[in-house]
Amino acid sequence: MNHPPKLASGLALSLAASLALAACNQADEREYEVGATDEGGGELIVTEPDPDAVPVELPETEMTNVPAGEGEAGTEAE
């Protein structure tokens, strides 16, 4: 009752399918180069430039903290 030809053909078919899948999955991964320095210690997200994007000019204003007294006054008025 032992059927070695069926076992061998099944094994060969499984091996062929595994090799075919491995050959299809060898696409080169794209590497992105960042044109900025990470000064915040967080993770940078790199995206491709969008040719349809609207150009935006950001102001060069220095950021300052809000004094503690002004932030509390707005919440008491409610």
From TrEMBL:
This is Argininosuccinate lyase. Residues 32-78 are annotated as: Disordered. Keywords: Signal. Residues 1-22 form the signal peptide. It comes from Erythrobacter mangrovi.
